[in-house]
Design goal:
mainly alpha; Arc Repressor Mutant, subunit A; 2 domains; disordered N terminus
């Protein structure tokens, strides 16, 4: 049996160049990881198990995602997208969340609640932020840019970016502190 290995400088297949069938298989892979992260920490997830759960051949999985970190980053992006679809932005009638600061703060609160409900995702978020894999770094940057786009208003892009950056730094710190205070959060106790 030949073992498939990947160099850390390899990138996953580009979604812009994928056929409909390839996008469907990629979606099954990331969905399988999201489901598995609801049950176990990322360090217990094996590529072979993802392959079996998704119904995608192991060799194909490695063509789509040469490293496990890249697969986890793509799954985290998929989960973030699902979370934002489940909880769409609602502008308050009194204008309370119409300014950038209030919207960014509301986003922070929603993300913290989502991470509290799914502590394995919280641990993975911290792990991904310490990655040196270029694809992982780019996926984190793309997620941050998408958040900024959702929260900017009119001509206040500079103010929104500053507020968002400040809140994001606090968010990362609060997430790390929450994980430390809740030592059992995100830890497999079985």
């Amino acid at each position: 049996m030949t073992r498939v290995t990947a160099r850390s400088d390899e990138f996953p297949l580009d979604v812009d160049l994928m056929s409909v069938g390839q996008l469907e298989r990629r979606g099954r892979l990331t969905t399988a990881v999201v489901e598995m992260l609801a049950e176990m920490p990322s360090d217990r997830i094996q590529m072979k198990d993802v392959s079996e759960r998704s119904g995608v051949a192991l060799g194909t999985l490695y063509r789509y995602f040469p490293t496990k970190q890249q697969l986890l980053a793509a799954a985290m992006t998929a989960w973030s997208g699902l979370e934002s679809v489940r909880r769409p932005e609602k502008l308050r009638a009194d204008g309370g969340e119409n300014n950038a600061y209030e919207r960014v703060l509301a986003l922070h609160r929603r993300e913290m609640k989502a991470f509290e409900r799914r502590p394995y995702f919280a641990r993975l978020e911290i792990e991904l932020h310490s990655s040196s894999d270029q694809f992982v770094i780019e996926s984190l940057d793309l997620r941050a840019a998408a958040r900024r786009r959702r929260h900017r208003t009119g001509n206040s892009l500079t103010g929104c970016n500053l507020e968002f950056s400040s809140c994001f730094c606090c968010h990362e710190r609060e997430l790390s502190l929450w994980l430390c205070e809740n030592e059992d959060a995100g830890r497999d106790l079985t």
